[in-house]
Write a structure and sequence with these properties.
Layout (H helix, E strand, L loop, with lengths): L2 H13 L2 H8 L3 H15 L4 E3 L4 E3 L1 H29 L2 E8 L4 H14 L2 E8 L2 H10 L4 E5 L8 E15 L16 H6 L1 E3 L7 H10 L4 E2 L6 H10 L5 E4 L11 E17 L6 H11 L22
């Protein structure tokens, strides 16, 4: 059964004539007749009573007419939705993310909802390597990733850069010559044992930090950020750690926070290596114009926030 057959059926039923239906559909009368005959043959039903002067629906035709109209209306909705997807105003985007990006993501979704209410974004949380794998396989349409300048099998579209925060014992800040909000130099930090998450846990961050501080001194193990900061504050021997905050800094006594000088963490949208679809382009535009609520430029301990390792 073809949609054109249903269009002819509805037109003849509404116009009560093959000539008027053909004019309405911009077809020949013979073409309309062939389609009606084909539809009747496929259904095994007679749809019209025909005479020289009159055309009227049979009982079967009257019963099928609302169904044919509904089918044509559904096909019209499919066409309109497909056009909206092509234009970026409709559709579904499966976005790989993590709670570290929650603030910017939710505000970008608000921007999308205001301008493109038919475009939905389904958030999928996963570790960074799993997010990249899902983009490669087509499970995710896009993913937010950190600290990468290239990745096999995906295209990276830069969005913004975040600072890295160094945390040091407050008691040791004077020994490093830190006054006020003065940041430590990388040379000074290299002399202190660094509590750094193992590379297997976060390859991108590990490589970024060790490249910035090539002479770094390994320190006690990094566990969770909260526990590591607590141990750093209480330990007899000074050490330091590094992380990227989300919206602020965790409230920990006896710890000094400083922006790590000269080091930023790029955040990108990873997509399949093809031109962006219109919906993903709309998401990228919303994310790239969404600004951080707070930017930790020399900072001190603040209220409670969520802090993510990726």
């Amino acid at each position: 059964m073809e949609l054109r057959q249903l269009e002819c059926f509805v037109a003849v039923a509404e116009e009560l004539g093959f000539d008027r239906a053909a004019e309405r559909l911009r077809l020949t009368r013979a073409s309309v007749g062939r389609r009606i005959a084909g539809l009747e043959g496929e259904l095994g039903l007679r749809l019209f009573e025909r005479s020289v002067r009159h055309v009227r629906l049979t009982a079967a035709g009257e019963r099928l007419l609302p169904e044919a109209r509904a089918a044509l209306a559904a096909a019209g909705r499919v066409r309109r939705t497909a056009a909206g997807i092509a234009a970026g105003t409709e559709g579904l985007i499966r976005l790989g993310t993590t709670r570290a990006f929650a603030d910017r993501v939710y505000r970008a979704l608000g921007t999308l909802a205001a301008g493109r209410p038919g475009l939905r974004v389904r958030l999928e949380r996963a570790p960074q390597e799993a997010r990249l794998a899902a983009v490669r396989s087509g499970t995710f349409d896009a993913a937010l990733v950190r600290a990468l300048d290239r990745a096999d099998g995906v295209a990276l579209h830069p969005l913004w850069s975040d600072p890295l925060i160094a945390a040091l014992p407050a008691s040791h800040a004077p020994a490093l010559g830190l006054a006020g909000d003065e940041p430590p130099t990388l040379d000074l930090l290299a002399r202190l044992p660094l509590r750094l998450a193992p590379r297997a846990a976060n390859p991108a961050l590990h490589d970024l930090v060790t490249a910035a501080v090539p002479e770094w001194t390994p320190g006690p193990p990094f566990t969770t950020l909260r526990d590591t900061l607590t141990e750093l504050a209480a330990a007899a021997e000074p050490s330091w750690t590094v992380f990227h905050p989300v919206g602020g800094l965790p409230p920990v006594d006896r710890v000094v926070f400083r922006v790590l000088p000269g080091v930023t963490v790029p955040v990108s949208l990873a997509t399949p290596p093809a031109p962006l679809s219109a919906p993903v382009q709309a998401l990228f535009d919303a994310l790239s114009t969404t600004r951080a609520v707070t930017r930790p430029a020399p900072v001190r301990p603040a209220g409670p926030v969520a802090v993510g390792p990726r």
